[in-house]
Design brief:
- By secondary structure, this protein is an alpha+beta fold.
- The chain has one domain.
- Helices cover 32% and strands 16% of the residues.
- It has four helices and four strands.
- It has a four-stranded antiparallel sheet with strand order 2-1-3-4.
- The longest helix is centred in the first third of the chain and has 18 residues.
- The relative contact order is 0.13.
- The mean pLDDT is 82.
Length: 150
């Protein structure tokens, strides 16, 4: 014989957090910290790198980034490229046809800059010193391993 539980509703089990949701919450927290420090904020946009002939190729808003220096925005975009790509595909499913052929752009978030054109983000090239260091790390068997900052 089974025992009845009475008239109270059983509490549903708490769903486990999706790892992507956790990542987005952590990123939002870092963004708010930089925002509170007064760091430059940028709106990030995406579009297909190849426009169809005779059709407009509009920039589509995909998110925001805050960086320590304005000159670091290119690097920040490409460090977060995978997450920005996922956000673009989630917001604009039609981009899934060209998901491997997207380009990113940016503009300062301040209202005074809303009339400014969106600038194309250019992937930064490593300096000769960085190339040499990576070659040495590879030669020493340390390629892909990073030292932790504490």
């Amino acid at each position: 014989m089974s025992q009845s539980k009475g008239f109270s509703k059983a509490k549903p089990p708490k769903p486990s957090a999706n790892p992507n949701v956790v990542k987005r919450k952590q990123a939002a927290k870092r963004y708010e910290e930089l925002q509170a420090k007064g760091m430059p904020e940028f709106n990030i946009f995406v579009r297909s790198a190849q426009a169809a002939p005779g059709k407009p190729n509009p920039w589509l808003p995909v998110g925001s980034l805050a960086v320590g220096r304005s000159s670091a925005i290119h690097q920040a975009i490409f460090q977060n490229e995978e997450e920005l790509r996922k956000a673009a595909l989630r917001l604009f499913p039609r981009l899934s046809k060209v998901k491997d052929n997207l380009e990113f752009g940016f503009r300062l978030k301040d209202r005074d800059y809303q009339d400014e054109p969106i600038q194309l983000a250019i992937q930064p090239q490593p300096s000769p010193l960085q190339v040499w260091i990576e070659k040495m790390r590879s030669w020493l068997g340390l390629a892909g391993k990073r030292t932790s900052k504490k």
